[in-house]
Amino acid sequence: MNEFQDKYGPWALITGASAGIGEEFSRQLAEKGLNLVLTARRLDRLEKLAEELKAKHLIDIRCIKCDLSDMEFMSSIRNSVEDIEIGLLINNAGFGLGGSILDGDLNRQLAQLNVHCRANIILTHEFGNKMLERNKGGLIFTSSVMGFFAAPYSLPYASTKAHNLFFGEGLYYELKSRGIDSQALCPGMTKTEFHEAAGLSRIGGMHVTPVIKASLDKLGKKPVVVPGLWNKFLVLLIKYLPRRIVLFIWKRMAQKLRRDKI
After folding, report:
1. Other C-beta atoms lying within 10 Å of the C-beta of residue 48
2. What is the SS3 assignment for 109?
3. What is the pLDDT of residues 93-146, one digit of tens each?
4. Angle (CA) 62 186 37, round 5°
5. Taking the complete model, does pTM exceed 0.90, yes or no?
6. Closest CA to 27 of 90, 119, 117, 94
7. Residue boundaries of the structural domains of the chain
8. Which superfamily is assigned to 3-257 in CATH?
9. How many other CB atoms are found less than 10 A from the CB of residue 221?
10. Sequence-ordered strand ranges (E) for 48-85
């Protein structure tokens, strides 16, 4: 057993594992020899990914069809993992919403809040307490560079990502001395299907592979990981430029990115 497996194994649970960042976490953790619990709404995609990774890496994988916006989502996960030890929790599931909050669909906004925030708190409480009993484990929260500022026309999304940024960073300092590593992963524009689903034009962006490699390489070493030099530069600008200038620039960019012309 390697050091990573000993610290964060034998099982990792990944939410939103059917595509994009969640799928890449699955691939790279499989390479490290961890068994996987994959959750998402699209069971067919999970099962296809599981077949591939089991054949290639000779690991065990469990797939759970689960909608984290459901108030009772935890029961299906709990029933499927009660006999195994989750050593690494990847709170990754999410989706994007754009436009003015007052023009958007309230139910979709509440669903996003449930998926990005409520579910992450429940999962962290469930598996984090078991990690404490073992004095080892890891937590990763997928945030975003948008978690660093109040983004006009993306406020529900940016606000939930700020929540994940604070959670991942704060828990690093709360739990490090108790054997648990926590991290907020803050990607910028990444080449996944996320932007099409959110109704945004994709302009450039990092490939997902180095994003996840940066996360896993820095787990336990840094509380906040911003992959890519350009994204690091953007975060510096957000931190040190006057906030009114940052928000004005983002507003203009958001108006151009939206296909439906805000």
Report:
1. 13
2. helix
3. 999 988 889 999 999 999 999 999 999 999 999 999 999 999 999 999 999 999
4. 5
5. yes
6. 90
7. 3-257
8. NAD(P)-binding Rossmann-like Domain (3.40.50.720)
9. 10
10. 61-65
